[in-house]
Recover the amino acids of this structure.
C-alpha cells in the first residue's frame, strides 16, 4: 500500500479521495507477477481457464449468426437486468446444479465479479462484518474492503467451513455489536483451498444463517467442474429466500466476454438491477447474444465434460508430481475446480520464498493473499487450470527444489518468521523439517 | 422511490441494506417507458445511437479477424487497465479533439458509465457535494446519489455553465463547509440541454476550478458528433493535471460492446485501475480486440462523418417541425449530439403531461429526470438520435397536439402547479399562453 507520505508528495489530489479509497491497494506481489508472465516461467499462480479447449468453430458460428441476424440489436444498449433469452439459458445451466429459479430472479452482470461488487455496494456500511472462509477468494475480499467492511475469517477443514466455528464467530460479533451483513461462501472446489463444503454442513450452515438472520452469498464459479462426481446440491437450491447466488460463464465458457449473473430474493434483486444500471447502464448486448446463441445451438454439456477431463488430467499431474517431488508436504486434494492449497514446513514463508521461486522459473500465489488479517505465510495456492500437464510436473519439480533449498536455509540459519500455521485443521499438521 | 413501509412488508432483508442503498431508486417514469417502447409510439425519449448506420460488413470482418487470429486471447481475462493496443487507438480518437495523452494515462472501462462509477466511488464520501450543470445527465446523478453525494446544480444558458454562478456556488458551499469533490461537466452538446460550453467560459471555468482546488470531470461522449464545426477544445487538452476525462465508443461506434475510457492524472489513474479490478477484474478482451481491429482496419473518421450527417438531418427534422407545429415554444438549438431541451408554456407540467403524450403515441423525457432537486417540471428533453426524420416530424406533430390540449386545459381550469421555470437563462422566457 502506498504510504501517506509518498502519496502526498506524488499525488496532488491525495487529500480528496473518499475514505473508502484507503481500501484500494495493489497486491504486494503484483510486480513479481509481471515477471512471472515470461514464457519460461511455469505459472501455477493465475486462475486463467484453459479456453483453448473451446470449440472455436462453434464460437465463430455463434458470433456470425448473431451479427448476421441481430446485428443492430447486438450493438445497441440492452436492459439493465440482462437479455431474457440469455436468462433462460442461465436457468438451464443452474438446473444442472439443482437450482430452480425464475427468469425474473436473474440479473446478468459483467462477470460474477460485478455481481460481488453490486452485492457489496448494496449491503456494506463502513465497519460492517462479512464472514468468509479461512482462506477466501482474494477478489472478494478486495471488493469488501473497497466498501470498508471488515472480513471475519472462519476456520475450515477438508469438509469446508466448520459450523461450530461459525456459530462462535457470530456470537462474538454479536457481543461486540458488529453488524454481520452476509456470510460469503465458495462451497464447491473453493478458491483457494480446493475443498468442498460437505452436504451435512450445508444444511447446518443454512440453519445457522437462518437462526441468526444472516444472508448467505454463495459464489459458485466452479460447481460444474467436478472430476468424479457432482458436489452436494447448491445452498440456493435449498433456500431461495436467504441466499444470493453468484454464477459465471467464465469457467464453463470463457472469461473474455465478461458475463456472469446473480440470483437473489425479489427485493434484493430489484435493488441489484438499479445498482447495476447506475454502474454500467446495461451489460453488453453483444456478449449476451453470443452466449445465448452458443448455449442454444451447441452441446454445452458435452463441452463442460471436455473441460472436466482437461482439468482432471491437470489435477492428476499436480498431485502425482507433489507425491513424487514433495512427498512429505501437506496439501488439499481437490475433487474439481482449479486450485490446490499447500502448507509449507514450519519456518518457511511463502511470500519471502516467491522471488527465489521465480528465479527458479516457477510461480505460485502466496497464502497471505487469501487472508484479510495478514495470515497465510505458511501456505500457498497452486493453480492447475492453465499449464499443460507436462509443464505442471516440471513446475512442481522446480517448486520442490525451491522448498528444499529454503528448508536447508532454515535448518542452517533458523526461521525467518515464527508464525504458527493458520487454518490449522485444513490438513494434517505438516511434518517437521527433517 | 419505495416507501419504507411497503419495503418492510415485502422485503425481509430491508433492514440490512447499506445506507447508500437509499440512493438507488427507480425512475418514476420507468413504467411509462415500457409502454412507450411499443412500435406505434414515436419515442423521442431514449438516447439510443442509430447503430444501423454502421458498416456491418466491416464490423463482421473485424470480429472474424479477431476470432481467426487471436481467439484464445480474446476469450481470456485481460489486464485491469485495458488492452494497450486499444489504448493506442483511443489516443488517436482523442487526438481528433486536441487531447494529448499517454497510453499509460488511459483506463478502459465497461462503457464510460463505469468510468463515472469508479470516479464517484474513489472520491465521494457521504454528504460531499458534486457540482453539475442545471440540468445534468440523469445517469451521472444516479451514480453520485448511489455514493450519497449531494448534487449542486449551477445555472447554464445557451453558452453552457455560467462562470459567475459557479463562483458563487463554490463560495456558498465553502461557507457551509461542504467539501466539493469535483465539478461534473458535459461541455459538448450537453445531455439533456443540447448546449455547448463556449471557448471563453472553458478558460474561465478551468481558472475557477484551479483557484479553488476543485477537480473537473469532463464527460464527452458527443464531442465528435458536431454538425457544422467542431466545438471548442476539450478542457483536458488544456489542463492534464486537474481534469478527469471520460470518453466512450458508444456514440462513435456502438454501445453494445460497452467500451469507454477514463483519462486521469497519474495518482488518480492508479487508483482507478485498482477500483476497476475490484469491480470487474478486467474489461472484456473480446470487445476491446474487436474495437481495436475495427479502428485499425477501417476509416473510422469517415464513419463518424456519416454519423454526423445522420444526426444533422434528424436535428433539422426536429427543429423544422418545432418551427412548424410549435412556433411559439422555446427550445435550445443543438449544434451536435443527440438532444434538444424544450420549455413548456407556464402552467404546464412535463411529467403530468407524459401519460397523455403516450396516449397520443409520442414519448419524451420529463425535465425532472435531469435535476437532483425536483425542479424541471416546465422542461422536457427531446432526443433526435434514433427515429428516422419522418417519424421525428410526426412525433413533434403529435407533441404539438398534446401541448395545445394541455394549454386549453390550463386556460379553462388553471395551472396544475405554480412552479416557476428553472434554468431561467437557458432560453428566452417562453411566451405567455395565448
Amino acid at each position: 500500500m502506498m504510504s501517506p507520505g509518498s502519496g502526498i508528495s506524488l499525488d496532488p489530489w491525495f487529500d480528496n479521495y473518499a475514505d473508502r479509497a484507503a481500501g484500494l491497494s495493489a497486491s504486494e506481489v503484483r510486480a513479481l507477477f509481471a515477471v512471472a508472465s515470461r514464457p519460461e516461467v511455469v505459472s501455477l499462480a493465475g486462475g486463467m481457464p484453459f479456453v483453448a479447449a473451446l470449440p472455436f468453430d462453434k464460437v465463430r458460428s455463434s458470433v456470425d449468426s448473431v451479427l448476421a441476424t441481430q446485428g443492430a440489436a447486438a450493438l445497441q444498449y440492452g436492459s439493465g437486468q440482462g437479455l431474457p433469452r440469455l436468462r433462460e439459458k442461465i436457468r438451464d445451466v443452474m438446473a444442472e446444479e439443482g437450482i430452480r429459479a425464475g427468469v425474473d430472479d436473474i440479473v446478468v452482470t459483467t462477470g460474477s465479479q460485478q455481481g460481488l461488487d453490486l452485492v457489496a455496494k448494496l449491503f456494506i456500511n463502513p465497519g460492517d462484518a462479512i464472514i468468509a472462509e479461512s482462506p477466501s477468494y482474494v477478489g472478494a475480499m478486495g471488493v469488501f474492503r473497497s466498501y470498508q467492511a471488515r472480513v471475519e475469517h472462519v476456520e475450515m477443514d477438508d469438509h469446508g467451513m466448520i459450523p461450530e466455528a461459525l456459530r462462535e464467530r457470530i456470537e462474538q460479533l454479536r457481543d461486540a455489536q458488529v453488524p454481520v451483513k452476509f456470510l460469503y461462501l465458495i462451497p464447491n472446489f473453493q478458491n483457494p483451498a480446493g475443498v468442498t463444503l460437505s452436504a451435512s454442513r450445508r444444511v447446518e450452515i443454512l440453519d445457522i444463517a437462518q437462526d441468526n438472520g444472516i444472508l448467505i452469498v454463495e459464489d459458485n464459479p466452479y460447481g460444474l467442474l467436478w472430476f468424479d462426481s457432482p458436489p452436494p446440491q447448491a445452498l440456493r437450491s435449498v433456500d431461495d429466500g436467504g441466499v444470493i447466488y453468484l454464477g459465471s460463464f467464465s469457467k464453463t465458457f470463457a472469461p473474455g466476454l465478461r458475463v456472469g449473473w446473480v440470483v437473489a430474493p425479489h427485493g434484493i434483486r430489484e435493488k441489484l438491477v438499479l445498482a447495476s444500471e447506475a454502474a454500467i447502464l446495461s451489460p453488453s448486448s453483444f456478449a449476451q447474444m453470443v452466449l445465448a446463441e452458443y448455449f442454444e445451438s451447441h452441446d454445452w454439456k458435452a463441452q463442460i465434460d471436455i473441460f472436466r477431463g482437461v482439468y482432471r488430467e491437470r489435477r492428476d499431474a499436480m498431485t502425482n508430481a507433489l507425491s513424487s517431488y514433495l512427498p512429505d508436504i501437506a496439501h488439499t486434494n481437490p475433487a474439481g475446480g482449479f486450485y490446490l492449497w499447500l502448507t509449507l514446513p514450519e519456518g518457511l514463508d511463502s511470500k519471502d520464498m516467491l522471488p527465489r521461486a521465480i528465479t527458479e522459473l516457477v510461480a505460485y500465489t502466496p497464502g497471505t493473499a487469501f487472508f484479510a488479517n495478514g495470515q497465510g505465510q505458511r501456505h500457498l495456492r497452486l493453480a492447475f487450470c492453465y499449464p499443460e500437464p507436462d509443464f505442471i510436473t516440471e513446475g512442481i519439480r522446480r517448486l520442490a527444489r525451491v522448498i528444499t533449498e529454503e528448508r536447508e536455509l532454515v535448518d542452517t540459519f533458523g526461521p525467518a518468521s515464527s508464525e504458527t500455521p493458520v487454518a490449522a485443521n485444513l490438513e494434517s499438521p505438516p511434518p517437521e523439517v527433517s
